[in-house]
Write a structure and sequence with these properties.
By secondary structure, the protein is an alpha+beta fold.
Length: 996
């Protein structure tokens, strides 16, 4: 089969548009589809306008007889947000009618893009022609169609006047019963009428089904609901459920519905977990403050949390952001840091007041003393997150809320610490003689004694300390390199749904696909923790494959809904592995067990693009690659997009013979289409409903190859055999032509299951290390590999930019190069904790989550070092020698350093550990899931939490021990070196001689 690639002129024009990230095209017989993927920072309306302009410019280079190209926006969010499956002891016609009524209701919901129906039956009036009778009466199919069209009509005849009245004239001719249709006269021969009933069997029956739907093996009709880009899933889902609750009372007896694949349920659960974690973290922080500072002082510090949150919510709301999962996690990450500034300032005010200053003076002097250090430490944290705002691409659009939220929240906490905390402390702070009796204070007093001894030892054994630190640092890298848990791009979450995708060979009949699906249904009935499953046979098409038309009888899918996580008894990863094992030996189709993708769309785990000119060579290369990588552990859904055409009967018309007999291609094709596919002649109205009247050959005359050979074309009273003017033969060839950025491409894709995507891709690359392609052909890795490489490169750049910005702030504050260098060492020291945490928690290194955690640490861990060194400098300025200033500063700043680290860590522990105390449920009186372990949100964010918790834990220890040692060695090193250089460069004065 020859496919005309009409897309080339448009592709060539689209290449002129800037900011197109990737352009793909698929051309089939009679249809071409081009998808242009733009960079995420372009305005979508502007992009659509530019595309329309280029398409218009390409039209002169395209064939004249093609339809005008359609330009439309597509979005990765335009996927079904839920399935509604209707079942009951009713006919499929009745169930589909119910579904159609619901479809109309759902489409009225603001934000709903489309609602599709699968399964059910549609009534139609079938006029099944007998070709032998047509030949006997010397009539053609068009005679029957025209007769039905002309008789089934109501025509207004104007109006007539009679006396004082004016009458409207109407000629009603629409069929009121099937008998009227049967009695339509097609033609009169020798005074005898030929009725439709003489030529055909007329039946008020059902359209041929294009799809089947079953819920838990029971026949059903399923609605698939899509939302528009940017719309609120929870609101739409709630409105759908409200409509269903209202309409279910109108359902016939023993008819019910089930909602499956409800994305809003997962989002609501995640948001609920994050809200509970915020409450848990808040309570833990307040408890720690009380433990160390007492009720009154703890309250003065703790007030920073609600005030900072309130200001943050106001700013976030003004910016038009909603409380999505990334914003909520950002609030949890910031939760412990919100009190850092308040702790430093309030603790310093308390110390000044304890030393004899009045409250007002203590508040003023203490704030002045640490104000600059607090400001610098906050700015360094903000600068650490600032580069991430510029994160490009889809992942950047997904993660940008984190730096924005943190910058807003921490800026709010700085404002509260500067304005509210000193004012409140000057009025309500009170010396408490019982402070020394607090468990936290007693613990700190003991800790200070041991800390002073340790600090003196390290200062007196500086080389030993640094060598031990260096050895430990190198050691953790070696151990991590040997025993790490691999790398992941995005966290692989335990699924709450599963998909069984079934692809039979192109051309497979719907009934054959259904037999395969029924085998699968039998085998998955005992799947653990399965709540419901819905089967859709045929009609399962790619959400981004526009214009393909109709359903796809060879494509089917089973959607499995699992119980809520707290109700499950098994890990769903293991459950899916079990399901996959049970379906391996079903012949006749490729069966893939997979799960929905979490997070932003990043493409397949494995995507290999093979470029070249000859599709037969591309197919051969694709087959070789698939044979090499097929048994890679964890590789699933391995396939390519090379499609050989479905089996076809090609009818080649001999134009010369046809013309000699008075026929043309259109006349022949029209007769064949009516005979095989049917032609809509008119509509049969019954009450408010309308049903198609379809004319076609009876099934017995259109079921085989020989029936086509016996077909005749009616022209001017004669039936001309099709065999006289055409050749009928079998064919199957290339079905599609695929381009990527203008190159002919066959793309191999696969997903990862049971292993991280990075590990699977690494194994695939290893298998293909020595793979060679013919000259002129090449292979490249795309999909998640490209996104991962881009994300890694950006995070590395963001980290380096953050380090430079932080260093710049420190140089400005301390007016020194050596002191910022000493402080920045704490960032490197935090890596020890990150890798140690990943090892002991058996967590993989997350490109995104761990990467962001490391960047976050860069801004957080320097805070304590800033406050510590700033105070050392102040003490030295007062005359204390270096050793004494370091020890005194360490003892004084131990309390705020420990408190700020502990509050930040405790704020993250509930989420990282997956401990969810359902406070929201308690407020509503629901005690069913009071405490949960392994909450879904923790699977997503725990990697980042591990990086921050362990990194901060070790960085705090190193800040208190190693940073003072480095300060002792390096603080005056630059100045001393400069003085020595000056001394060397200073010209020697001439010797003085005595004159006698």
């Amino acid at each position: 089969m020859k496919i005309s690639n009409w897309s080339l002129p448009i592709e060539n024009k689209l290449k002129e548009i800037s900011k197109i990230k990737k352009m793909t095209s698929t051309s089939r017989e009679g249809f071409s589809n081009i998808v242009a993927e733009f960079e995420s920072d372009i305005d979508i309306d502007e992009a659509v306008r530019k595309v329309r302009e280029k398409v218009d410019q390409a039209k002169p280079d395209m064939p004249d007889d093609i339809e005008d190209p359609i330009v439309q926006e597509i979005n990765f969010e335009n996927i079904p947000i839920m399935l509604v499956s209707i079942t009951g002891q009713q006919s499929l016609v009745r169930l589909k009618k119910i579904a159609e009524n619901l479809q109309d209701e759902f489409k009225q919901i603001p934000g709903v893009l489309d609602v599709n129906i699968s399964g059910g039956l549609e009534r139609e009036v079938k006029v099944n022609l007998n070709p032998a009778r047509l030949q006997y009466y010397k009539l053609g199919v068009n005679d029957v169609i025209d007769a039905i069209k002309q008789e089934n009509t109501t025509i207004p005849g104007g109006s007539v006047e009679s006396g004082n009245l004016k009458y409207t004239v109407r000629i009603p001719g629409e069929f009121s019963s099937i008998d009227e249709l049967k009695n339509v006269v097609v033609k009169t021969v020798n005074g005898y009428p030929i009725y439709v009933r003489d030529l055909a069997d007329v039946v008020f029956g059902y359209e041929e089904q294009t799809s089947y739907s079953r819920l838990d093996k029971k026949s059903s009709v399923t609605l698939s609901i899509q939302k528009r880009s940017g719309e609120n899933i929870i609101r739409i889902a709630d409105e759908v459920k409200n409509i269903l609750e209202k309409e279910k009372d109108k359902f016939p007896a023993k008819t019910s519905y089930v909602i499956l694949a409800d994305q809003s349920k997962e989002i609501r659960s995640t948001v609920n977990d994050l809200e509970n974690n915020i409450i848990t973290g808040l309570l833990l922080v307040i408890l720690v403050l009380y433990f160390f500072m007492g009720a009154r002082n703890g309250l003065l510090v703790g007030i920073a949390i609600p005030l900072s949150m309130l200001i943050s919510f106001i700013v976030i709301s003004m910016m038009g952001y909603t409380l999505n999962m990334v914003v909520l996690f950002s609030l949890i990450l910031a939760l412990g840091m919100l009190v850092d500034n308040a702790i430093v300032i309030v603790e310093n005010i308390y110390r000044h007041h304890q030393e004899g200053s009045g409250l007002m003076k203590a508040a003023r002097d203490a704030t002045d003393e640490v104000g600059m250090a607090v400001f610098a430490s906050t700015v360094t944290t903000l600068f650490a997150f600032a580069p991430m705002i510029l994160w490009p691409g889809i992942i950047g659009e997904f993660m940008k809320y984190l730096p924005i939220t943190l910058i807003i929240t921490l800026s709010s906490s700085l404002f509260v610490a500067y304005v509210f905390n000193p004012v409140l402390s000057s009025s309500f702070l009170k010396l408490n003689e019982k402070t020394s009796l607090l468990p936290g204070d007693r613990l700190l007093q003991k800790l200070i004694v041991h800390y002073e001894k340790s600090l003196r030892w390290t200062l007196n054994h500086r080389k030993t300390t640094l060598w031990l630190t260096f050895a430990g640092y190198i050691g953790i890298y070696i151990v991590y390199g040997l025993f790490n848990n691999g790398v992941e791009f995005f966290p692989d979450l335990e699924p709450s749904q599963a998909w069984i995708k079934v692809d039979a060979p192109i051309g497979t009949r719907l009934e054959t696909s259904d037999k395969i699906l029924r085998q699968i249904e039998k085998r998955i009935l005992d799947t653990p923790d399965m709540e419901h499953f819905v089967t859709e046979v045929g009609g399962v098409t790619d959400a981004f494959d526009f214009g393909g038309g109709g359903g796809s009888p060879h494509k089917s899918q089973i959607t499995i809904d699992f119980l809520e996580q707290y109700e499950r008894k098994h890990n769903t990863f293991k459950t899916l592995e079990k399901v996959r094992g049970e379906l391996t030996d079903i012949p006749g189709a490729r069966i893939d067990v997979t799960k929905p993708q979490e997070g932003p769309p990043t493409g397949s785990a494995v995507e290999i693009q093979i470029k070249g000119e000859d599709f037969r060579v591309l197919e051969e290369i694709s087959n070789r690659i698939q044979r090499l990588i097929r048994n890679v552990p964890g590789l699933t859904k391995l396939k390519d997009n090379y499609e050989k055409g479905r089996p076809e009967l090609n009818i080649r018309i001999n134009r010369e013979k046809a013309a000699l007999l008075g026929l043309n291609t259109a006349m022949v094709a029209s007769t064949i289409r009516t005979a095989v596919n049917g032609t809509k002649a008119s509509e049969y109205r019954m009450g408010q409903d309308e049903y198609d009247i379809t004319v076609r050959f009876s099934k017995d005359f259109r079921k085989s190859y020989s029936d086509l050979l016996n077909l005749t074309i009616f022209y001017e009273g004669e039936h001309i055999p099709l065999a006289n003017v055409a050749h009928v033969g079998f064919s199957s060839g290339l079905s599609t032509i695929n381009h990527v950025d203008g190159d002919r491409v066959v793309t191999i894709t696969a997903d990862a299951f049971g292993r991280s995507s990075a590990e699977v891709l690494s194994d695939v690359k290893h298998r293909l290390t020595n793979f060679t392609t013919p000259e002129g052909y090449s292979l490249t890795y795309a999909g998640q590999n490209t996104e991962q490489a881009e994300a890694s490169a950006f995070l590395m750049r963001a980290f380096l930019i953050a380090i430079l910005l932080i260093f710049f702030v420190l140089v400005t504050q301390f007016n020194s190069v050596s002191l910022p260098f000493v402080i920045m060492i704490s960032v490197l020291l935090s890596f020890f904790g990150v890798f140690f945490g990943l090892l002991v928690t058996f967590s993989p290194f997350g490109i995104i989550m761990t990467g962001i955690g490391i960047i976050s640490l860069a801004g957080v861990v320097v805070n304590n070092a800033i406050v510590l060194i700033d105070y050392i400098q102040r003490l030295r300025a007062k005359g204390l020698d270096k050793m004494q200033a370091i020890i005194q500063s360490g003892k004084t700043r131990l309390r705020p350093v420990i408190l700020t680290a502990v509050t930040t860590i405790l704020g993250l522990i509930p989420l990282t550990a997956g401990i969810n105390i359902d406070f929201i449920g308690l407020f509503k009186g629901d005690f069913s899931k009071f405490i949960q372990f392994g909450a879904e949100s923790s699977q997503w964010w725990s990697n980042m939490g591990v990086a921050v918790i362990f990194g901060l834990l070790f960085a705090t220890a190193f800040t208190l021990i190693i940073v003072p040692v480095l300060y002792y060695i390096l603080s005056d090193a630059v100045e001393t070196a400069i003085e020595k250089i000056k001394m060397k460069l200073k010209p020697k004065s001439a010797p003085v001689t005595e004159e006698g």
